[in-house]
Design a protein that fits this description.
Layout (H helix, E strand, L loop, with lengths): L5 E8 L8 E8 L2 E7 L4 E2 L8 E6 L2 H5 L4 E5 L5 H4 L2 H4 L7 E3 L1 H13 L9 E2 L5 E4 L2 E8 L6 E8 L2 E5 L17 H10 L3 E5 L12 H14 L4 E4 L5 H13 L3 E5 L1 H12 L23 E5 L9 H6 L13 E4 L8 H13 L3 E3 L14 H11 L3 E5 L3 H13 L4 E2 L6 E6 L4 E5 L4 E5 L2 E4 L3 H12 L1 E8 L10 E5 L11 H15 L2 H4 L2 H20 L5 E7 L1
Parallel strand pairs: 3-6, 6-7, 7-8, 12-13, 13-19, 14-16, 14-17, 15-16, 17-18, 19-20, 25-27
Antiparallel strand pairs: 1-2, 1-21, 2-3, 4-5, 5-23, 9-10, 10-11, 11-12, 21-22, 23-24, 25-26
Helix pairs in contact: 4-8, 5-11, 6-7, 14-16
Length: 556
Amino acid sequence: MARPDELVFAPLGGVGEIGMNLSIYGLGNRHQRSWLAVDLGVSFGDEEHLPGIDLIMPDISFLEKERKNLMGLVLTHAHEDHFGAIIDLWPKLKCPIYATQFSAALFEAKCAAERNAPVIPVTVVPSGGRIDVGPFNVEFIPVAHSIPEAHALAIHTDAGVVLHTGDWKIDPTPTLGRPTDEKRLRELGEEGVLALIGDSTNAVRDGRSPSEAEVARTIIDLVKSAKGRVAVTTFASNVARIKAVADAAKAADREVVVVGRAMERVVQVARETGYLDGVQNFRSPEVYGHLPQDKVLALCTGSQGEPRAALARIANDDHPEITLNRGDSVIFSSRTIPGNEKAVGSIINNLVLQGVEVLTDRDHLVHVSGHPRRDELRDMISWVKPQLLIPVHGEALHLNDHAKLARAAGVPRVLVIRNGDLVKLGPGDPGVVGEVPSGRLYKDGTILEDSKSRAVVERRRMAFSGCAFVAIAMTAQGELADEPEVDLVGIPEKNRAGEPFDDIVFDAVMSTVEGLPKARRRDPDALAESVRRAVRAVINEHWGKKPPCLVHVLTV
């Protein structure tokens, strides 16, 4: 029999992957538990494997069933991979949401920009504050990261304290916001921490992540030495980097022009919440063309190669207001997220072909990660002294390296788990005690589909091999009423011998229909299946691919 005060943890996203973060904590026994959710994020679609899918979200069917026991959703910070799924999924849960001021304000702005967004109330918690969420007492501990007001969560329960780090790093000289609260983390370690649920993103990298202050100095040097126009692209949410770019522009006597809706939104929220106090006003894109070349700096969205973002349009020379020419410079103050290399490479190549100088973190310290490297992970472990460490927020290699580091650092118990694993944290020996439903939802236009959705599977197949459509009209006696109609989409016009594929498929349809006994010709389903098989076989024979084939039989 499970003890009444058993504390459990399960990741529903964000383990074995970077993105789509959703963690849940349960308190009670196996018959009745109160649940606390931490973060509700997205990851992004890959056109090669998921054509037409923009966003991927965690499957929350388990939380839907437990909705009456879901005490609340707490946000560590306002990055898309931690809060980007709320607008789509919260209506299925309707639980209270808790966040600090900047995260709440950015979420409100995101809702305002979304068509038909539901009204979603958020309770604002002060940085460093503590709140009761059902039987959980949640403490917001400031940590340095690449967005204002990132927080680790100390989750206090009768069964013990868990430190959920969220995304963090140790930056003793942040240019914006508070540094990681070492003092409070050490105090927690002295009081006793049952488990540390920790960010693994940079667990493969030795040393320490450099400071934002170093990046700010580099950007000032680069902007001051630039001769023509300058464009800088970075993650829109990185307000410290936006401030660094603004300071560099001021030092070089340049005006900052903000280009891209996401950047405009973050700048507005940062001003409203005081994070850009004292920073000069920025200009709108229509002013850009009227400013001298050495007096303007464009701050652009699109650092990840997003095709509709500002930088992609500038690189393709189809932005209505912003152009770059030979002698101008673009600074990529960002790192390329794995999977985006092709898109970013294409933009860089287009800029180079226009004679633009491209500056990246390969050559200059224009970006630092917001995640801890190995020495920082060791510091966190030494401060917090957890009895158990569970690596999260990383792919298999990151989780494994974080686990090895934790064992070497003397953590008594280390567990590497997968999405859906239900882990008992305490009391008693920790371990995986079950499984909860987990999976992925795809946002397809305005519709949410599960990963086995017919539309998603078929579209992937069509992207690979096109599709064949055949329409056949038959009489009640099983004779052709007219010639079959054939339409081939995404299939080559001719085979290697130069023969038209339309003719090849048409002949295959005719010979199949005429070769069938009349009884099968009078059965629309049997006729359609025979034609479908014949069309796929003949295309495969001449092309080496088997496209989906849709056959419509009409009886007249």
